[in-house]
Design a protein that fits this description.
This protein folds into 2 domains: 65 residues, no CATH class; 151 residues, 2-Layer Sandwich (Zincin-like), CATH 3.30.2010. The chain has 6 helices and 11 strands. The strands form 3 sheets. A 4-stranded mixed β-sheet has the order 1-2-4-3. Strands 5-6-8-7 form a 4-stranded mixed β-sheet, with helices on one face. The chain has a 3-stranded mixed β-sheet with strand order 9-11-10, covered by helices on one side. It is α/β, with parallel strands linked by helices and 239 residues long.
């Protein structure tokens, strides 16, 4: 049936080109439509027996809604020398110095900056690697300190690129955080880390879990609000 049809196609939405991605989901009950905050693609999920025609009908019925969502997406922000990247929510100037031989250097003076060496064609990769390294170092220190407060130890800490969650805690005590959190304010990192560390004792979202989280971080409301507002933009930085 649909096996020979491409998963991706270009379509027009309110007169403008847009990417459309088809998904089949055996557990889906109905045709679903959404716009991915990561790449700005329209995603239509079809239950096993639904036709693409049904998907397109849903899309056309909500064309204005989709157009609004696409228009509201943060612009993808590409890294370049002379531009900036937020680290702990502070804009750092990106300085490419081909003669710089050391590891990436992050500095707050004379102005917040990150200096990277190597070929210009590797700038994006090096910058991303530097932010991942900084995230690992900073989040490990914070998570370790918080875990001590509740007599737990973190089994390990992984830094990943995720689109659906900012952090997680595996049953074996390994914590995972999105490297993109390094771009967020301190208090946002503090909350996400406090939340996941609390899971080292409470593997659920019970009242006991939230009480524990409260002991580990006072920033739940502000951080949740910040992520709801600015999270989508974080996902589109350096893409
Ligand atoms: Zn949780």
């Amino acid at each position: 049936m649909s096996t020979n049809q491409p998963d991706h196609e270009q379509i027009l939405v309110a007169g403008r080109p847009a990417g459309l991605r088809w998904r089949r989901n055996v557990r889906a009950r109905r045709v679903a439509l959404r716009v991915s905050p990561l790449d700005g693609e329209i995603i239509i999920t079809l239950p096993p027996r639904a036709s693409r025609h049904a998907g397109l009908t849903l899309l056309r019925a909500h064309e204005n809604w989709v157009a609004d969502r696409l228009a509201a997406l943060p612009k993808p922000s590409h890294w370049r020398s002379g531009g900036t990247v937020p680290i702990n929510n502070i804009a750092h100037r990106i300085i490419h110095d081909p003669l710089w031989r050391g590891a990436a250097r992050i500095s707050l003076r004379p102005e917040p900056s990150i200096t990277l060496g190597g070929g210009a064609e590797f700038l994006t990769r090096r910058l991303r690697d530097a932010l991942i390294a900084r995230a690992r170092e900073q989040f490990t220190a914070k998570a370790t300190a918080k875990a001590i407060l509740i007599n737990r130890r973190i089994a390990g800490l992984r830094i990943k690129d995720t689109t659906s969650r900012w952090g997680s805690c595996a049953p074996d005590g390994t914590l995972m955080f999105s490297w993109r959190l390094i771009m967020a304010p301190d208090y946002v990192q503090d909350y996400v880390i406090g939340h996941e560390v609390a899971h080292l004792r409470e593997m659920n979202h019970s009242p006991a879990f939230w009480a524990l989280t409260e002991r580990l971080t006072p920033h739940r409301d502000a951080a949740t609000q910040w992520l709801a507002t600015h999270g989508p933009a974080l996902l589109r930085i350096g893409a």
